[in-house]
Amino acid sequence: MQRRRGRTERARKRRRRSSGSRAVNESYRSEFIELRKWLKERKFEDTDLVPASFPGTGRGLMSKASLQEGQVMISLPESCLLTTDTVIRSSLGPYIKKWKPPVSPMLALCTFLVSEKHAGRQSLWKSYLDILPKSYTCPVCLEPEVVDLLPSPLKAKAEEQRARVQDLFASARGFFSTLQPLFAEPVDSVFSYRAFLWAWCTVNTRAVYLKSRRQECLSAEPDTCALAPFLDLLNHSPHVQVKAAFNEKTRCYEIRTASRCRKHQEVFICYGPHDNQRLLLEYGFVSVRNPHACVPVSAEMLVKFLPAADKQVHRKITILKDHGFTGNLTFGWDGPSWRLLTALKLLCLEAERFTSWKKVLLGEVISNTNEKTSLGVAQKICSDVIEETHAVLRKVSDMKEGTVSLRSQLSLVEALRMEELRILQASAEILSSLLAPFS
User: Fold this and answer.
1) How many helices and strands, by DSSP H and E, does the chain display?
2) CB neighbours of 361 closer than 8 A, spacing ≥ 6?
3) Could you say which of 3, 79, 128, 253 has the lowest number of CB atoms within 10 Å?
4) C-alpha–C-alpha distance, residues 338 and 247, integer Å
5) What sign results for the dihedral spanned by CA atoms 231, 55, 290, 274?
6) Three-state SS at 270
7) What keywords tag this UniProt record (predicted)?
8) Are 384 and 304 in contact (CB under 8 A)?
9) Which pLDDT band holds residue 16 (cuts at 50, 70, 90)?
10) Predicted TM-score of the model (pTM)
């Protein structure tokens, strides 16, 4: 006779399930209860989605019922959206209208977020602000020694991003000073760089695309960002398709699923066909087994393993530049990209066949020697990047042991580098199989 399990054992089993592969419903949490009330006051109708915590992705939205293809899963009324219209209608409006030169739509949104965050309980947006992240993991927020561990193309973009945000903050300080009448505290303490960076990351990582009408008091930069409470709890997956747009008839921002979703599963949206370096730069995370993930190859790396005696190499590089073949050269899950192999085939052209360079760019096979040489150079580049990636991962591991405060940031770099290592290893195997017939 089978022994009956007691209540204690059943409770342990439930805990194991909830802490393992199952989602944990978080709709009971006070901040989400308050958000629901706030949304309802703004005419948001209840949905079959609830906040939950998921293993691997963290906080997101779970479906309480099965979703069918084409079904509207969220319809967020215009009154719930935070746009530049919201900012202009607020107490900041008169100050923005007076300031010359006009502030940008991004600066207007950031200023509003900092102001409302400072207002605390007095803010009409408190219920939304309370569920926003307290900090972000975009490269602009990472410590310099962590940014140094990023792949070179991403590191350069991260430094550009940081400089852009710092310049925006510095150029806005004069405008911030005019807002002093709105605050009891010194305006410099309200609009600190830390507060501004939090606001900038909030807009940059969470805004949906919504083209707004031109505001005469704002600069001519595109006004296309809107913050969408509750809707922005949806996490990204490169494997799903959704349709997201503002419905002019219903005056709601709608998310319509293009595929089915089972009951009690996490519901995803797709931010776009982005590789992991782009996802980390703009959103602060890495997607595992991302089909769009790739490892860029720099123009400098292209010539590293070419024969030193090739007197035509500079002419070949000029041709590649003139025809746009020095960018977007990558290794992917399916091996070296066509553009990378084409660039290498041109660079590996024998002197007597140099006049055939146009045929190479059109994808024609010039000779077995050219095919073998270019694949061999691709293999050497791949091996070189693998070695570099291993070296960085060892450094990350050592830093995680010695610098506890940076562990979460280092783990992000580690995730990116590990994913790129898997891509490179897949490419190395493919290159070996492509070279096999020539051996």
Assistant:
1) 17, 13
2) 323, 325, 342, 346
3) 3
4) 40
5) positive
6) coil
7) Cytoplasm, Inflammatory response, Methyltransferase, Nucleus, S-adenosyl-L-methionine, Transferase
8) yes
9) very low
10) 0.90
